[in-house]
Every structure is written in structure tokens, then in C-alpha cells.
Amino acid sequence: xxxxxxxxxxxxxxxxxxxxxxxxxxxxxxxxxxxxxxxxxxxxxxxxxxxxxxxxxxxxxxxxxxxxxxxxxxxxxxxxxxxxxxxxxxxxxxxxxxxxxxxxxxxxxxxxxxxxxxxxxxxxxxxxxxxxxxxxxxxxxxxxxxxxxxxxxxxxxxxxxxxxxxxxxxxxxxxxxxxxxxxxxxxxxxxxxxxxxxxxxxxxxxxxxxxxxxxxxxxxxxxxxxxxxxxxxxxxxxxxxxxxxxxxx
Amino acid sequence: xxxxxxxxxxxxxxxxxxxxxxxxxxxxxxxxxxxxxxxxxxxxxxxxxxxxxxxxxxxxxxxxxxxxxxxxxxxxxxxxxxxxxxxxxxxxxxxxxxxxxxxxxxxxxxxxxxxxxxxxxxxxxxxxxxxxxxxxxxxxxxxxxxxxxxxxxxxxxxxxxxxxxxxxxxxxxxxxxxxxxxxxxxxxxxxxxxxxxxxxxxxxxxxxxxxxxxxxxxxxxxxxxxxxxxxxxxxxxxxxxxxxxxxxxxxxxxxxxxxxxxxxxxxxxxxxxxxxxxxxxxxxxxxxxxxxxxxxxxxxxxxxxxxxxxxxxxxxxxxxxxxxxxxxxxxxxxxxxxxxxxxxxxxxxxxxxxxxxxxx
Lengths: 249, 360
Fold this sequence. Notes:
The complex is a heterodimer. Chain A contains 11 helices and 7 strands. By secondary structure, chain A is an alpha/beta fold. Chain A has one domain (about 25-250): 3-Layer(aba) Sandwich (Rossmann fold), CATH 3.40.50. Chain A has a 7-stranded mixed sheet with strand order 2-1-3-4-6-5-7, sandwiched between helices. By secondary structure, chain B is of the alpha/beta class. Chain B contains 12 helices and 15 strands. In chain B, strands 3-2-4-5-7-6-13 form a 7-stranded mixed sheet, with helices on both faces. Chain B starts with a strand and ends in a 6-residue tail after the last helix. The interface of A and B includes residues 12, 42 and 81 of A. β2 of chain A pairs parallel with β9 of chain B.
């Protein structure tokens, strides 16, 4: 029988530890498919964060680093500067990138580091059990906002893509979602473009992926996809926030 | 061959590192060592090497983590408050066993402290600093020339044992100018870096740079491995100087770095007053030269006097090494104040006149 659907070469055989309905596995696969399609597995180096995807280094077949919390873009800077011929990506969640690691991602972007950041935004701290993230929506109930996020007390969510898009060193920034087949395909296209921009040496590229956390949202996987559409997508608008190729035209 | 040049300590650090094949420098400005970064910014690009001014010391040390993980020689340089910020990264680097060089040109603390010379980061450098059971070799030069020689050696030790190494100087050593010579030296025979994450480049299994071991059995095993490595470092890499210790001394001084130079002057002026002093000068602060005390404990009538630019952080290690066999005194200044030879001598006289003799 002909094999029509196979695991990408850029993923290992290690089963993931993710909860049922979590979209991390899917996003890993999109990155792996892009690495395969571009034929760059041999020279790719990935950087895993602290958070639910801390073990991503076990799942990607490329050479990998585990970074300390929030520092993945600094680690990736060191890697890329030391080995400029390599393809370097960071994989980071919202707590890692938009709270403790804000300085690192902003400065990697503004330096125009030729790396790609895949930023997975599920509006909550997953690994520690569902606390408020910097991207938690106003009114959203979490362990540390038990009465809903009160913006007067806990401030407002950060729109990371829009913020990074203001920086001259960023060459490509897009926000995508994995709530539907159509959007998953768009997400893959964006990740591929981000890697291609890196290969072309254009600068820093970031793809923000709106994703779900059924466990900590207290919803079924299907309900979670609906919650993402109904609540996250209105606050975090999808689309290209920056593309220097488009600007040149 | 006399090729001596006059160089400032901080610039000599940069030059020595480049000559030791340091490929990447990551740093953040902080007094009194910012000239290291300035020197690297000027010189590294011309050699096709990397200089990055990071957004913080935290970022700088994690850039070192990234570059070191690919197997290239790399370093950072900072001063006390900056090293505090780097301590997270140093713990990760020790845990992931990455070779690199960290220079600390110590200034007065705690907190923002001062920008003057101090030795008050001894505990931080030798007892951890970051979290977890780790140590790193710490080299304490006492002259600009020795700093040059130790930088090259520290890079080799880092590579041989897969460990971060620290050069710990003080603001005085960083800012002084001295004649120095860059001698060609025989590098150590070093192991291949087959652990480095370089991209697969045809390799079948992926390399992972990591300090996470979720299973307690595995983390304990990793810690056991680290401790075994530290034991070998303790056996092989201890360095110290014994100065005038091979005579029947009244007292032996214990000091490192700038303070040890002052102590050598004190030894001469004490001789003129009929008091015989020796000096134990630790060159590696970790591993601490316990052996130096085995060799000298029978050559001092009144024990040891530890002299530091701190509140006495090294005294504990001296106590452990002497293990009750001789009295231990302490003289120190803090806050960027440098011990005056007369004050050290006054403490010496007090110990000699009031002390209990170890032997008769």
C-alpha cells in the first residue's frame, strides 16, 4: 500500500506529552513540515522555551537547545551569530515570550537577528496550571484572576505582533490561528514564509499562532476552538502585521 | 624575546581572549570593565568574529549559552551587579556543561555599591551564585600579565572539562596599566566537541543542549556526574603561589589578587622590623588550594592572617583548610577601600605579640 501521509522527518518518534486537544503538537508538525519542504533539517537548530513546550527538544529531530525562561531569543542570537549558516528558530509561549522574555524578543527583533520565532499564544499559563498570562483577555477567569482579569488591577493584554511590527529590524510578522483547517493551512504558509525570509537573510521574523488550552480553559477541545474564534480572534486580529517585501513594492 | 607592551588590564583581557581564539563576545556596559567590550567591538569584526552588545547581562549570558552550545569559544565580561544578573545563565551553563569564559572585574557591593575595587564576590564566585549543586573554576590573577596567561588557560580548562570558567579580578587590576608580553603557548590537547548542537550536518542523532532532567533518578545521576567532574578538577587544576613560605615564619598571610601584591610589600617591611612573614596566594579560588596549608602549617609560629577587600569571605575556606591546626586572623577593608600596608602590619604585630604560638 502506498504511504500517503507520513510523519515529517523533522519530528522524532517520541510521543508528545501534550493534553488532548492541545494545539502544540499540530504547530510542531507545521514547523517540521516546513523544515522538510525547505530541505534544511541538516542545518536547523531549534530553541525550546520554559512552559508547556519545554520538552519540544525531544520532539524535533533537529539539533536543539533548551533555554531558560524567556531567554530563547538571546540563546538563538548566540547560536545564529556563532553559526550564521544555520537556520535558527525559537518556539515560545505567551508567558515565556510576552512576560519574562519581553526584553529578549524585542531586542532580538530590533537587532534584526536572522532568526524565526514561533510564538504560541493561548492566553494562559498552561504548565503551571492556568494562571493569568500577559495575553489573558480582559474579564478572562484564570487561577490568578479568579474574578476575571480586571484591567484596572491586572492591566491589559499585550498585542505582541503589532508591537514587534513597529521595530525596523523585524522583516516579517504575521498572526495566524489554528482553529480551522483553512487557518491551519494559512498558519503553515506563514511559518514557511518566516523561514524563507530567514534563509534570504532579511531579518527577524515572527509568527504568532493563536492556539487553545482546553485543560486550563476548562473546555472540551471542540469548545476551545470555538472560544478561540469568539474571544481571541476579535482581540487579536489575524493577518500580516509587517512584511518588508510588500513594503518594497 | 622581549616584546613587552604597556597595556591596561581591561584591554589586555580582550587581547588575550582574542589570541586564545575567542570567536564571540557578548556583553553589556558596566563600570569598571566596559573597556573590554569597547576593545572587542573595535577588534573582533576585523577578524571576522562576533561582537554583540546585549540588552542586559541576562541576555548577554544567554547569548554565551547559545554560542557555547554550538561549540565555539566565547565569553562575556561584567562587574559584580552584572554577574548577579548573569547567575541564572551561569547555573544553566554549568548544568548543560558548556565551556565558556566569564570575566568579573569586582566592584564594591552589596547592591549598586560603588565602582571601586573590591573582592566581595568571593562567595558568589566560589560557592555557587546561581541555584543548584555546581561549581566553576575561578582564577584570580594578581597582575595584568598573569591575567593574560590565565585567560588562555581558563579557555582550555573550560573546553577540557566542559565547564564555565571565571576570571575574577578587581577594579584595580582592570584599570591599571602594566608592561605585558603575549607569549606563544602550547595549548592543551582538548577533546572533540562532539556534543555541540551545530545542526545535524549529516549526524544521525540530534544533539540537545539542556539542563532539564524531569526524572529525579536522572537528575541525581547527572549531579553525580558533575560532582565526579568537580573532583577531577580539584585534583588537577589547583593553582597557588607560596611566597617566602619555606622558612620558619612568625605568621603567614593569605591573600589573592591586588591584596596579595600589597601583602608582598608588607612582608618586606616586616622583615626590617624582624618579623618573618610568608604568603599563601590562591590563584584558583575554586578549587581552593587546601594543599597550600598542608605545606605551610608547620612553617608559621602564630598561624595565618587572611587579608581581603571584603568582610572576610575567604576566611571560611582558610578555616576549612587549616582545620583547627593554627589560629586564623583577618584584616579586611570593604566598599572600595584598599588595605594599607601599615594597617596590615599593625594587625600582624598584634597577632605576633598577643598570639598563641602554634609551635615552639
